[in-house]
Amino acid sequence: MIKESAIEKKFKKNYLNCLKRISINKNKNIYLVSNLKEIGRVKISKNKKIKLILDGMEKVIGKNGTIFSPSASMNLINSEIVFDLKNTPSYKMGPLAEMIRKKSKFRSLHPYWSICGYGKNANILNHVSNHSYAYGSPWSKFLDLDVLQVNIGIHPSKAVTLIHHIETICGVPYRYTKEFSHKVKYKNKIVLKKFYMSVRYKNSDIEKKKKLNEHYFKILKKQNKLKEITLSSGIKIWAFKMKDFFNISSNLFKKNLYNYLEKEPKLKPYAR
Hints:
Structural class: alpha/beta
């Protein structure tokens, strides 16, 4: 067994203490998002740093906790590449997400937007719909499970895919459900299956907010439901309950279905 250096021990101790200070503790169900480009100044190799981060999270939540991660492979859209549930790598999700994918025992069966996970409740990924964002998708399961989203090195306003689940179930008019057919390798068989995604209309002047999602997190922060901490190495970590984000944002969608956008579109291919 390779001994940890003094720098590694110091980083690990500080990291574990910080996780506990933002309410990450035993038995938690965690959805982990990261950007390692902004992961601090500590002099530890990237691979070692990733391992310390994941090992630390596992230690804090314990054997009855669960770690989920995005394992999307959007590069497969409009391709003939077979989606292999066990072996298809994630695409542009980052090295920490890919490490989690390789450790995961479960992965949702969707060739474009899959979620992977391991731990006590990861088996929920075996019981989801073929829609990337709709009711019955991993996102609605996360709400039932009261999952805590943890962002490391990237502000959650820049990485909160849950918003598309909320757009979908709130019925925003600028999105529609599109059907895709894709070959998947599942239980050692290659089969052609139908999958669904909520996508935006192309022939429209839809414009996302310049400060995307920030208005939701300002409310979360004001209500003390967005936890934030900075490690001594400079790494920033945020944590929030997905259920809290859902409640705040869905209430805004009830008042204005275009609140996610900079303004209401003028070109509306969905309008008559």
